[in-house]
Each structure stands twice: as C-alpha cells, then as structure tokens.
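Structure ticket #2291
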Amino acid sequence: MLFLRLQRYEKIVPNARVAEKIIFTAMIRYKNLGGGSGVQAYETGPSHISVQFNGTPRIYTYSNRRAGMSHVNQMKILALRGYGLNSYINCFVRNLYD
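Resolution: structure written out below.
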C-alpha cells in the first residue's frame, strides 16, 4: 500500500513574495514481518531514506550526509525486507536524522 506524503516548500522570491511548491511523494507501507515494529511507512531516494513511525505524522529523513552512506544503505535493505528496520534505527542512527 502506498501513502502520499505532502511536502510544502517555501522560497523567497524578488519583492519579498513567497512562492509555494507542493510535491507529493509516495511512501510504502512497511511490511513489519516481525509484528512489533514502530515503523509504519518509508520512502527512499538516491541518498536518503525517510521513515514514518506509528502514532506520529512526522517524517524522519536519514541522509548519507548525516547518518552515513553505510547506515542508509543498510536501512534501505531492511526496509525492503520488512524486518529489523526499527531495531536498526534505535541501535545505530536514532538521532542522526536531518
């Protein structure tokens, strides 16, 4: 199942006006094969993984720049498997989100 995540970006343009651009990003429901994960959905990009946890609308993005490429790549693998992502985040990258 896919979720649509609404992102709002604001950019200052000449004459102090604000232009808005709305982007819809598809998030994939996490399989949760272990049954006890706090991860609800995720979305991946070339250099990041974004995770939404149960009980919060907030999206946490872990990037190569902040969390490190090896951690981000491992999280992408675990997300695809549907097992172990929440534990990995808690053990290795808990506060390394952007």
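Closing remark: The longest strand covers residues 17-29.
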